[in-house]
């Protein structure tokens, strides 16, 4: 199969999805809610997002060049935030 790329068996990206989720969950649990600055201060989170967006040149912003891509990403984000997590928890 010439079109199939060989993948490394090392690193986070090579792990199966359930193992990635397990590791990511541990990272999220390592800091209590009251210590997470964005969870305590939504205005701070919004400002950080704005700063991140401004740090990229307008011509390099894929969403500003492709409104269909932006709409699709927004749609996926909305669907994901309203979907129940298959692991039993709720998302969003």
Describe the structure.
- This protein has a domain at 35-84.
- Helix content is 53%, strand content 0%.
- It has helices spanning 17-29, 37-40, 42-54, 62-65, 67-81.
- The longest helix has 15 residues, at 67-81.
- The chain is extended and about 35 Å long.
- The N and C termini lie far apart (41 Å).
- 0% of the residues are buried.
Arithmetic mean pLDDT: 76
Radius of gyration: 18 Å
- Sketch the major β-sheet: none
Structural class: mainly alpha
Beginning-to-end CA distance, first to last residue: 41 Å
| Structure annotation, total helices | 5
Q: What is the number of strand segments?
A: 0
Low-pLDDT runs of 5+ residues are none
- Which band does the percent of strand residues land in? under 5%
Oligomer state equals single chain
Q: From N to C, what is the helix and strand string? A: HHHHH
Shape: extended
Share of helical residues: 40-55%
């Amino acid at each position: 199969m010439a079109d199939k790329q060989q993948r490394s068996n090392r690193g986070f990206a090579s792990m199966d999805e359930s193992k990635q989720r397990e590791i990511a969950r541990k990272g999220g649990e390592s800091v209590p809610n009251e210590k997470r600055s964005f969870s305590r201060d939504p205005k701070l989170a919004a400002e950080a997002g704005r700063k991140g967006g401004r740090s990229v040149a307008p011509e390099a912003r894929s969403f500003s060049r492709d409104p269909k891509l932006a709409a699709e990403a927004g749609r996926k984000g909305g669907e994901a935030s309203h979907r129940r997590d298959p692991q039993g928890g709720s998302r969003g």
